[in-house]
């Protein structure tokens, strides 16, 4: 090789390259229990696509949400901030709620859109509708939206078909609201929603959005917030009657099918190797529905509680060639999603207080998390009590406990609504590595010297956190105005029953 050839070779090898920013897909299940997926130990769930993601990606064992209800956890997920800061605490938003995610809050979509990303959301929003759709996703950084503004049980459903050809929705639904509206951006295109064709419509939307982004050579951020497996369960013809777990299993299979379709779409447009797919759930299972409500596996209680069954979630990160297959026991939270996406994409971090950590090192290097503690708020938090529980390393301390109606029917009396608010001094303390079910209180026989130090550390962490936390004005407490319920024919009468249309 001549000197000229060597110089040319070095110029080519050492020339700076501009890597394409990665595409991001964030998939969120609704009320999925820690023990519901096959890859998390369920013996009869049929979830081959999620199982494959877990096999070829990174599966988390200790991934948490900040609260055990829909609205608070979704606010934290999209902002990287505790729900108390944005005012989305005290239960959940309803169809006629005056409040919603404040427009001053900065979402992941807004951060990535400002960085040149195409952004879209499909599925369940549940962060407010408001006057004239003030709080819809299209006002929060999402350029496209196909979905519903709140939970699909918050509408009459008793006469609707949930499973073809004519299986009616069987779980209890709210009768006094308008029929469930399906939005395309800010326009209602169907009311009530046709459940038997909803998920296939979502899948088609996903393919169309990705195709457009690829054609325009634009990186994309897709937030796919599935309705599955929240009640009332539903599914299209392809999945009806196909599972071993009845209606719940059919809905879970359809969720899994959407994951499979997503991966096929990424492969079809040759962007799979440059796309991070992150899958998790908003909170634990609704056990009051028994076998139609899911399971938290070996974890204690479920939705509505600060026990691990309510707040520990399945989570899988998949990125071929970048994330090595494996299992991580590192602590992580939905709060970590926004700062991690910022780090991976090179976007500008919002100039606000963030409560999450960048877990890029965990994803790409199999390294340790910067997160050493996680704090858990109840359904109805207040500044006097502060957080109910703190996870610190492998330990979890409960300063307050309370059951919830969404954790009914299990044999554990601590989960039921009859388990009233109880203060614990000293706190209940569990070693979650050896006792993930939170059965054996380490302090039941008194505090040993080694545990004394642990408790001092945890109490200090709680006190510091509670002191620094700010509570924004409660958006839920702003109340309800039935006139704000979305209606495709706003001048019709009598409401809410006249709000019906299809296109």
Which helices and strands, and how do they pair?
Blueprint (H helix, E strand, L loop, with lengths): L2 H12 L8 E7 L18 H9 L1 E7 L5 H10 L3 H4 L21 H7 L3 E7 L19 E5 L12 E3 L3 E2 L13 E3 L2 E5 L3 H21 L4 E6 L20 H23 L6 E7 L26 H4 E7 L7 E3 L3 E2 L3 H9 L14 H6 L7 E4 L12 E4 L2 E7 L20 E10 L17 H20 L32 E2 L1
Parallel strand pairs: 1-9, 1-10, 2-12, 2-13, 3-4, 3-9
Antiparallel strand pairs: 2-11, 4-7, 5-6, 7-8, 8-18, 10-11, 14-15, 15-16, 16-17
Describe this structure in words.
InterPro entries: Alkaline_phosphatase_core_sf (IPR017850), Sulfatase (IPR050738), Sulfatase_CS (IPR024607), Sulfatase_N (IPR000917). Helices cover 25% and strands 18% of the residues. By secondary structure, it is α/β, with parallel strands linked by helices. Strands 1, 2, 3, 4, 7, 8, 9, 10, 11, 12, 13 and 18 form a 12-stranded mixed sheet that branches. About 2% of the residues have low confidence.
Quick summary of this structure?
The chain has helices at 3-14, 48-56, 70-79, 83-86, 108-114, 195-215, 246-268, 308-311, 337-345, 360-365, 449-468, and strands spanning 23-29, 58-64, 118-124, 144-148, 161-163, 167-168, 182-184, 187-191, 220-225, 275-281, 312-318, 326-328, 332-333, 373-376, 389-392, 395-401, 422-431, 501-502. It is α/β, with parallel strands linked by helices and 503 residues long.
């Amino acid at each position: 090789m001549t000197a000229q050839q060597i110089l040319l070779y070095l110029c080519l090898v050492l020339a700076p390259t501009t890597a394409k920013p990665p595409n991001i897909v964030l998939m969120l299940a609704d009320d999925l229990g820690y023990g519901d997926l096959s890859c998390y130990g369920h013996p009869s769930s049929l979830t081959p696509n999620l199982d494959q993601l877990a096999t070829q990606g990174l599966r988390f064992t200790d991934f948490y949400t900040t609260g055990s209800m829909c609205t608070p956890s979704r606010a934290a997920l999209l902002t990287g901030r505790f729900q108390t800061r944005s005012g989305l605490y005290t239960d959940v938003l309803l169809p006629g709620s005056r409040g919603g995610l404040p427009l001053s809050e900065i979402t992941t979509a807004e951060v990535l859109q400002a960085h040149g990303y195409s952004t879209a959301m499909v599925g369940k929003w549940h962060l407010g509708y408001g006057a004239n759709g003030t709080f819809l996703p299209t006002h929060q950084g999402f350029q496209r939206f196909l979905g519903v503004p709140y939970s699909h049980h918050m509408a009459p459903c008793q006469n609707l078909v949930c499973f073809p050809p004519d299986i009616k929705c069987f779980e209890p639904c709210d009768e006094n609201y308008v029929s469930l509206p399906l939005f395309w951006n800010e326009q209602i295109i169907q009311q009530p929603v046709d459940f038997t064709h909803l998920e296939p419509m979502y899948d088609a939307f996903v393919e169309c959005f990705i195709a457009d982004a690829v054609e325009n050579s634009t990186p994309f951020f897709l937030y796919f917030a599935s309705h599955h497996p929240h009640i009332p369960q539903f599914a299209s013809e392809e999945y009806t009657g196909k599972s071993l777990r009845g209606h719940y299993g059919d809905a879970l299979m359809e969720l899994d099918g959407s994951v499979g379709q997503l991966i096929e779409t990424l492969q079809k447009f040759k962007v799979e190797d440059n796309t991070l797919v992150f899958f998790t759930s908003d909170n634990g299972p609704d056990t009051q529905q028994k076998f139609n409500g899911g399971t938290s596996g070996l974890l204690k209680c479920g939705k509505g509680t600060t026990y691990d069954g309510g707040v520990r979630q399945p989570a899988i990160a998949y990125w071929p060639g970048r994330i090595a297959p494996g299992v991580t026991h590192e602590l992580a939270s939905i709060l970590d999603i926004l700062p991690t996406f910022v780090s991976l994409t090179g976007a500008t971090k919002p100039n606000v207080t963030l409560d999450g950590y960048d877990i890029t090192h965990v994803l790409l290097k199999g390294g340790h998390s910067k997160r050493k503690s996680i704090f858990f708020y109840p359904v109805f938090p207040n500044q006097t009590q502060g957080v109910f529980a703190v996870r610190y390393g492998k330990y979890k301390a409960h300063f307050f406990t309370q059951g919830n109606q969404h954790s009914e029917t299990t044999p554990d009396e601590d989960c039921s609504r009859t388990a009233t608010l109880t203060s614990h001094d000293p706190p209940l303390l569990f070693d979650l590595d050896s006792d993930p079910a939170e059965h054996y209180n380490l302090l039941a026989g008194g505090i040993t010297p080694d545990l004394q130090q642990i408790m001092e550390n945890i109490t200090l962490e709680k006190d510091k956190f509670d002191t620094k936390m700010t509570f924004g004005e409660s958006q839920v407490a702003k109340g309800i105005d039935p006139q704000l319920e979305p209606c495709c024919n706003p001048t019709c009468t009598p409401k809410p029953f006249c709000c019906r249309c299809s296109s």
